[in-house]
Amino acid sequence: MTKNTGNPGRKPSMLDSFKPLLIDVAVPLGSYYLLKEALGMSTFAALAWSSVVPAVRTVWGLVRERRANALAALILVVNVVSLVLSFVSGDPRLMLAKDSGVSSTIALGILLSVRLGKPMMTEGMKPFLVKGDAAREAAWQRLMSGEAAGSAAFRRRERLFSVVWGLVLLAECVVRVVGAYTVPVDTMVWLGSVVLVAAMVIGFGVGGALAAGPMEEMLTAEAAAGRAEQPAVGAAA
Known about the structure:
The protein is an all-alpha fold. Helices cover 81% and strands 0% of the residues. The protein has 10 helices and no strands. The longest helix has 52 residues, at 185-236.
């Protein structure tokens, strides 16, 4: 008896959809804080070790897929920038300000990806809209490829979602730099995290209202249209 090594008919789970995002972003960031805060490593050592996964992912993408893994490469660049900045010491305010280098690097990377026609935030947004549904996945492909009537509007919203996130992260960077030099150091240590969370809330809220929400409506309509066409095609055949 041949052993069944997979189930091609299995509906993709949310974990399957988010796996690349978890590997490229969550693992490097999570490992950095684990190594630095829980295990007591220096900032330099924690950054260096947390760069291993994005470095391997970037090289693997170039060797096997003949293309750069955008998220992994961006996280690697962010870590390298932080490693360079970690050599700067002695000024607590400068050390607080350097944390904004992470946000600014990611923001510029996101905005550049829009300019290049490959919005980086799409990879994180798509699983929320497709929901592992085959009909919605097919509708997504039609809308992205230009086959559907609403493709142009759909692609504009897709680009807008990344633009919103890029601008929000740039604003967060500016606020943290200003705070690092105007707010007491002890206050800014915890306030920096509050600013980051606030930026995330604004990014999700504005990005959802201006882009993800309308995209979901267009995707639902296109998926319904695709389902309606299938019986007609079958009857004609």
